[in-house]
Automatic annotation (TrEMBL):
One of its GO terms (molecular function) is hydrolase activity. The keyword Hydrolase applies. It comes from the Bacteria. Pfam families: Esterase. This is Alpha/beta hydrolase. The keyword Secreted does not apply. Residues 1-22 form the signal peptide. Keywords: Hydrolase, Signal. InterPro entries: AB_hydrolase_fold (IPR029058), Esterase-like (IPR000801), Siderophore_Hydrolase_D (IPR052558). Belongs to the esterase D family.
Length: 286
C-alpha cells in the first residue's frame, strides 16, 4: 500500500498539480462537410412492352448543361448501377477529361433476367430446362427501340449518332440486333459475344441475314479473348460470313485479345472501342 501511495504521489508531483487535459470527444471534433457524389441520373421508365418499370441510367458529358451542343449516344446493355454503367461511363469521363475522345452521352439499360432479355429463343431442351424464361430478346429489342430510344431522344440533345455495346450474353444481343435490325444503331460493339448459345445457330444463320442487309453505313466491332473452342468456333463462322457477304457500307473488324479471359476482357475492349468510335478529329493541317 505504501508503494502504491508513493507512485500516486509522484504522478501528482510530475503533473505539477495542473489539471489533466481531457481527451477530445467526437462532439469536439471539427465538422466535416459531407456531400453525395453524383455521376448521373437514374430513371424509372414505365414499359408497356415489358409490363414493368425499368432502370435507365444516364451520364452526361461535363458542360452539357451550358454547351447547347448535341451529342452521340452510346447505349450500354447490362447498364444497371450494379452492372456495367459505372465503369463504362468512367471511360467516357476519362476521354473527356484528357481530350482523347469526343464527348458522348452514355445510357445504361439495366437487365433483370439476362437470358430472358438478351438471348434469342432456343429449341435446346437442356437450355430450356435450365433457363425456363429464356428467349425473349426480340421483345427486349422492341423495348429499346420503341421506348428507351424515344425517351432519350425526347429528353436530351442527341446528334442522331448511336451505338450499342454489350459483353457476353449482351454481346450476343448486339450481334443479333446488327444482323436482324441493323438500322437501329450506327455502330455495334460486341465483346466476347456468347455465340455458343443454341449451338451457335445465330452465327450459322448470319449469312442469310447479311444477304438482306442494305448498304447503309454502319460499324460492327467484334472482340474475343482466349476463351476456348466453344466461344471461338462460332466467332469464326460469323467472321467468315461477314467476309463472304461484304457490303461496301458496312465497316467491321474482329480483334482477338489473347491476353484476356472472359472475366477480364470488357474494360480494355470498351476503352479501345471508345478510342475508335469517338476519336477526336485531327486538327486541319496535321
Amino acid at each position: 500500500m505504501r508503494r502504491l501511495a508513493l507512485v500516486l504521489s509522484l504522478g501528482l508531483s510530475m503533473a505539477g498539480g495542473a489539471p489533466a487535459l481531457a481527451a477530445p470527444t467526437v462532439d469536439d471534433a471539427p465538422a466535416v462537410a459531407e456531400t453525395p457524389i453524383v455521376i448521373g441520373r437514374s430513371y424509372a421508365l414505365p414499359s408497356t412492352i415489358l409490363g414493368q418499370t425499368r432502370e435507365i441510367n444516364v451520364w452526361l458529358p461535363p458542360g452539357y448543361a451550358e454547351s447547347g451542343q448535341t451529342y452521340p449516344v452510346l447505349y450500354v446493355l447490362d447498364g444497371g448501377q450494379d452492372q456495367d454503367f459505372h465503369h463504362i461511363s468512367g471511360i467516357a469521363q476519362l476521354g473527356t477529361i484528357v481530350g482523347t475522345t469526343r464527348d458522348v452521352i452514355v445510357v445504361g439499360v439495366a437487365s433483370v433476367d439476362r437470358r430472358n432479355e438478351l438471348a434469342l429463343p432456343t429449341d435446346d431442351a437442356e437450355l430450356i430446362a435450365r433457363y425456363p424464361t429464356q428467349g425473349h430478346s426480340e421483345r427486349f429489342r422492341r423495348f429499346i427501340g420503341e421506348e428507351v430510344q424515344p425517351f432519350i431522344e425526347g429528353r436530351l440533345r442527341t446528334s442522331g449518332e448511336t451505338a450499342l455495346m454489350g459483353e457476353s450474353l449482351a454481346g450476343l444481343f448486339v450481334v443479333e440486333t446488327f444482323l436482324k435490325e441493323p438500322q437501329m444503331f450506327d455502330a455495334y460493339v460486341a465483346v466476347s459475344p456468347s455465340l455458343w448459345w443454341d449451338g451457335g445457330k445465330l452465327a450459322r444463320q448470319s449469312g442469310a441475314h447479311l444477304r438482306d442487309h442494305s448498304n447503309a453505313s454502319r460499324t460492327l466491332m467484334l472482340m474475343l479473348g482466349d476463351e476456348g473452342e466453344m466461344m471461338q468456333a462460332p466467332m469464326d463462322v460469323l467472321t467468315a460470313n461477314l467476309r463472304d457477304h461484304a457490303l461496301p457500307g458496312v465497316k467491321w473488324d474482329f480483334t482477338p485479345r489473347p491476353a484476356e479471359s472472359h472475366a477480364t476482357i470488357y474494360h480494355g475492349a470498351a476503352l479501345d472501342a471508345f478510342r475508335r468510335l469517338y476519336a477526336v478529329p485531327a486538327a486541319p493541317g496535321t
